[in-house]
């Protein structure tokens, strides 16, 4: 007891976590009493008060640390990437893997003596409350989408930039910055869909309308965009009016399952199917199939798990489920492809964009950090911290192969005679579409 009191709080905290996790903790710790422990060159975790310890003990693993950081009880001093890029540490914290139970209990006891005993701290205000209703019902999906997207359009503009595109950009040889890369992505989708003047496009999960506006302006199509976010729809309608395209664009606050005015010549779904869920994926595939005309194309752009996850893994408490995408599910690519093929869609192409998303996320983080004060003023410190942690962790997740990836899957609804209407090679249909795009751009 007397020996423990002579050691600083930082030394005791660091030793306790090493005992709990069973590995050396390669970070620097600074505590509420000003004490410091750990290598000077390492990323520094700051325990601003004893409540941070209580959060960890009441919610062991990822959730407790996330709550402490978002609430401001715990801070990261220096490079956030440096801390979150320690794979063994992050994996061990997330799973709370204990190799030596006796030693781990000693670490828990040490944290308790440091101030971990007490009432359970209230979760940060921005945390999703207990979910009610049937998972992926229309009402519950609308609530989940509203939690993520209806936090203020100005906040998203701060880190998305003028493009207002909240999905992986396409960093081709023409993309010199984020806006150019997002333009290239939207153009790539249009080309894969074979858009041309007079076509009718359904944009599922239309966001702030960027894809719809690009398709109408550059390819001369009429677009119906659907979203469950009222704030997104309001922004999209205003942007369409400012572009002089209101007569070509319709934005609805509507569930994709309620769209009944098909057929459409093409459907784009960009960064939306992650909200659908495994159980509802067959419904999603069938609905889009029914809305396509024969030879109509579907472009599904979505994050994918590299390997099949454990049942219920998508519902694990932590940053994603409690703060970012409640009810969101990241599925293997094979699961999506199978769902499409089961309803009669023919998958013609799949392109992996993993490295592209890592670059995109890095740009979003840079923009958010550069405008940090504006972000906090817009949505508050808790929500700003939430997004920073999420974007940094996601960037690292896409940079390391074997964790996350993202695919653009192109599918077609074949005609009754079996024809697809898709040229035989990728170069043929991309070149043909590019020619149509240039013609449309030159039109008055």
From TrEMBL:
Domain of life: Bacteria
Pfam families: CMAS
Keywords assigned by UniProt, alphabetized: Lipid metabolism, Methyltransferase, S-adenosyl-L-methionine, Transferase
GO terms (BP aspect): lipid biosynthetic process; methylation
The EC number(s) this enzyme carries: 2.1.1.79
Membrane as UniProt keyword: no
Gene Ontology MF annotations: cyclopropane-fatty-acyl-phospholipid synthase activity
Gene3D superfamilies to which the protein is assigned, alphabetical: Vaccinia Virus protein VP39
Family: Belongs to the CFA/CMAS family.
Listed name of the protein: Cyclopropane-fatty-acyl-phospholipid synthase
Name of the gene this protein is made from: cfa_2
């Amino acid at each position: 007891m007397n020996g423990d009191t002579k050691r600083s709080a930082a030394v005791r905290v660091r030793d306790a976590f090493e005992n709990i996790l069973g590995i050396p903790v390669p970070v620097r710790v600074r505590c509420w009493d000003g004490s410091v422990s750990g290598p000077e060159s390492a990323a520094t975790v700051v325990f601003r008060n004893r409540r941070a310890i209580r959060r960890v003990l009441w919610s062991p693993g990822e959730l407790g640390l996330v709550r402490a950081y978002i609430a401001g009880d715990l801070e990261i001093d220096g490079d956030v990437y440096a801390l979150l890029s320690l794979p063994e540490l992050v994996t061990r914290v997330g799973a709370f893997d204990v190799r030596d139970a006796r030693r781990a209990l000693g670490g828990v006891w040490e944290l308790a003596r440091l101030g971990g005993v007490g009432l359970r701290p209230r979760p940060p205000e921005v945390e999703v409350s207990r979910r009610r209703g049937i998972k992926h019902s229309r009402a519950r999906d609308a609530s989940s989408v509203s939690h993520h997207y209806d936090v203020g359009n100005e906040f998203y503009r701060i880190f998305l930039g003028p493009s207002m595109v909240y999905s992986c950009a396409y960093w081709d040889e023409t993309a010199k910055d984020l806006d150019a890369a997002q333009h290239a992505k939207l153009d790539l989708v249009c080309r894969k869909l074979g858009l041309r003047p007079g076509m009718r496009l359904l944009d599922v999960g239309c966001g702030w309308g960027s894809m719809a506006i690009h398709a109408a302006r550059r390819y001369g199509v009429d677009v119906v965009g659907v979203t469950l976010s009222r704030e997104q729809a309001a922004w999209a309608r205003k942007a369409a009016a400012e572009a002089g395209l209101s007569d070509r664009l319709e934005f609805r606050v509507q569930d994709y399952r309620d769209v009944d005015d098909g057929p459409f010549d093409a459907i784009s779904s960009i960064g939306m199917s992650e909200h659908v869920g495994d159980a509802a994926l067959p419904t999603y595939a069938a609905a889009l199939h029914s809305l396509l005309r024969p030879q109509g194309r579907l472009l599904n752009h979505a994050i994918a798990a590299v390997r099949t996850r454990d049942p219920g893994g998508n519902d694990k408490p932590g940053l994603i489920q409690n703060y970012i995408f409640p009810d969101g599910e990241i599925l293997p690519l094979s699961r999506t492809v199978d769902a499409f093929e089961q309803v009669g869609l023919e998958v013609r192409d799949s392109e992996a964009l993993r490295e592209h998303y890592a670059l995109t996320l890095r740009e979003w983080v840079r923009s958010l950090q550069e405008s940090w004060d504006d972000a906090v003023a817009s949505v508050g410190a808790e929500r700003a911290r939430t997004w920073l942690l999420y974007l940094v962790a996601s960037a690292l997740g896409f940079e390391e192969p074997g964790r996350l990836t993202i695919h653009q899957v192109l599918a077609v609804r074949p005609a009754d005679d079996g024809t697809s209407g898709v040229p035989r090679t990728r170069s043929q249909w991309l070149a043909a579409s590019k020619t149509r795009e240039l013609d449309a751009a030159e039109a008055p």
